[in-house]
Amino acid sequence: MVITQSLTTATSWSTAASDPKLWAMLTQTLLPLYVNTCRWFAGKARQQTGFSARTVHTLPLPDGNVAYLLILEASYADGVPENYLLPLSFIADQTGDALTDVPDKGRIGEVTFGRKSGILVDAIYDGRFRQALLTAIYHNQIVSQTDGQLTFHRGQGLEEGDQELVSRVLPVDSSNSAMTFGDKYFLKLYRKLFQETNPEVDMVAFLTDESHFANIPAFGGSVVWQAADTNPSGSPLRDHADVTLGMMQRMVPNDKDSWMQTGDYLNDFLYGVPQRMFAIREDVFDKVELLGRRTGELHCALYKPTADAAFAPEPFTDDYRQFLIKRFEDLLERRYALLIDNYTKLDAQAQRLAWVFMEAKEMIDTFIADFRTRPLDSLRIRIHGDYHLGQVLATENDFVIIDFEGEPESSITDRKIKHSPLKDVAGMIRSYHYAVSAKLFNSAETDTLDPDHLQRVSDRWFYLIRDTFLDAYLDVFGAPHPLFKNNTEINFLLLIYLLEKAVYELGYEISYRPSWVKIPLKGIIDVVREIEKIRLSDGNVESGVPMLQTGLLQTQRP
Ligand SMILES: Nc1ncnc2c1ncn2[C@@H]1O[C@H](COP(=O)(O)OP(=O)(O)O)[C@@H](O)[C@H]1O
Ligand SMILES: O=P(O)(O)O[C@H]1O[C@H](CO)[C@@H](O[C@H]2O[C@H](CO)[C@@H](O)[C@H](O)[C@H]2O)[C@H](O)[C@H]1O
């Protein structure tokens, strides 16, 4: 264990919540050092100007001790402060072997509280804290705090008798923390907090309790901080009543998600490619069809004309069109700027694709503007919002859809806006495009192949899989269905959402996986080609976009 700092205070751990000086000390010493080592802390690369304890909630532990749920505010030189959940537990030296379960990444520092010395840890690594969460959810407990209350809610998925289970922290390093109970329940603690109910809780509760949708893990419960109604400090977290801190679901037995499963199928496919053999196994089509159907069933479960305002279907109002256009235009502006800033870092193929994208700007602008006035009679509903192959767990014979938090770049309010479900469909179609492109253009088996040929093979696989998915999806609804007025609207909306998703992905790849930037760029250009076809068939408009060169996705040219 590498502990760089230690701290001594006369205050005992059990009374620490009410000692503001102690929290001031902790937030200036141990805690900033610690959170900057955590994957979930999104402010690492920003210029931090300070940390403070927004509020400290107390949770009694089964052995009579306490843990604290600290809401830590991080301030920056630019932009508004962020709030993070940091649960804290103190493991005194004489507590026996409790510390052996705490990995280095969960140890915050050596502290002496009163006359007891020990280690301050992230409480998720303390079994007593995990058990306290389970007990509180099981019993629908309300625990009063100086600033409101912690409300634990039990969902239908948490079975009678399951109030005491062996728990562990899942080793997934992501933006939240996950733990399991008896390998039967999965509890996600949200780290970055928002001033309202996390959309994931709304969605999962609705799908389980209202629609009884079977292909998500059943809702086991939630942990919510209901802040006191007063707003003395003007803190944004106190303006709203509910802040979601965690959500429990049934644990899904799975060894992989659909991204990995599709990767396995593509490995089989890949072996035939150098032999000029195009072979997709029948069971691959069966799986894609099944995922199409499950996606359709998800949207049917979310389409409830009798639901309350949060879930009731809505038409394509002027407000929505305005919102989408503005969001799209802002996104495009940011992406063009990012692309220009990073242009010289791109390889030659990505640079060629980037040029085509930039030259298509006017056509894209016109296409988006058309959305303002085009008659649209299809409906909008709440959707998944960040739907891709990695969000679907593959069980032995089926699929289970997870992670309903919505698009990471959007605010919580925007994540609750209703869209055509074709936005999710576009997300999955883009994901299949990613899967085949990443595999075919980054594998030793295809390294020496002619890039034009490889591009044609990749396109062929993608179009077959895309159409299989889409047909199975639309079959679920039958025709006509209020969500989809007609084929013309379906095509138009799919193109809009495909373009938006690919433009979004461009930013993600520039920031995290620069060698994959070509994948969304190719996706953008494919949509631009479709738009161009529509324009050309609508009237005698000359094509303004240079012919797309083939082989643009090849990473190593022979
Ligand atoms: N109900 C579940 N059962 C089993 N594993 C799950 C469940 N939910 C999530 N996981 C696993 O945990 C990982 C992270 O979950 P996710 O909801 O995507 O969290 P995050 O919002 O942190 O990305 C998933 O990729 C999956 O492997
Ligand atoms: O972390 P999240 O799952 O919320 O989503 C983010 O990361 C995803 C990458 O893991 C990213 O998805 C993109 O890459 C996927 C392959 O790794 C591909 O299947 C998706 O189609 C593509 O969008 C996602 O966009 C981002 O929000």
UniProtKB/TrEMBL annotation:
Gene3D superfamilies: 3.90.1200.10. SUPFAM superfamilies: Protein kinase-like (PK-like) (SSF56112). Keywords: ATP-binding, Nucleotide-binding, Transferase. It is an enzyme of class 2 (transferase). The keyword Endoplasmic reticulum does not apply. Belongs to the aminoglycoside phosphotransferase family. This is Maltokinase. It comes from Spirosoma validum. The lineage of its organism: Bacteria, Pseudomonadati, Bacteroidota, Cytophagia, Cytophagales.
